[in-house]
Amino acid sequence: MFFIVLAAVAGATTWWQRGAGVFGDTLQQALGLLLWISPVLVGALLVSAYVQRLVPRATMEHWLGGRSGLRGLTVATIAGAMTPGGPFTAFPLVVGLHRAGASTEVCVAYLTAWSVLGLNRVLVWELPFLGVDFVALRLLVSLPLPFLAGFATRLIIRWVRP
């Protein structure tokens, strides 16, 4: 509700300060973005829901649960690095994984890998602009980050909930 109210206030302010033409153009751009993002978001939400139903909880807990340790962090890091798209794809998937039995530390490692190691972004943006040497070095120093984030999450959870 907060964002709906914020959007209404921003729209009214745009209309008042810039006029109906600018308001209409802005609304048209926003609706175009919504139409572009909606199929991806709907697909990610469906995958999230299907993961919860298709993967048995025992299997999810074995591979990505609280006792999966380094195995779970490794799987999450690989999956996060391979997940294409923006937050509208990654976050629904993490919600689905978490609800299906993946531990919080695994979900943090997944999101960290998605944001730091995203192979899709590396191939499309980084390599053409920055070159192989720079990208290889960046990936090398970034590779431990999902594991560190996962281990740190585990320590914080143990500290907060003894």
From TrEMBL:
Main location: membrane
Alphabetical list of InterPro entries matching this protein: DUF318
Subcellular location(s) per record: Cell membrane
Pfam family, one: ArsP_1
Keyword match DNA repair: no
Topology of this chain in the membrane: Multi-pass membrane protein
GO cellular component entries: plasma membrane
Transmembrane segments: 30-51, 72-95, 135-157
Domain of life of the native organism: Bacteria
Record's keyword terms, sorted: Cell membrane, Membrane, Transmembrane, Transmembrane helix
Family the entry assigns: Belongs to the UPF0718 family.
Protein name stated in the entry: Predicted permease
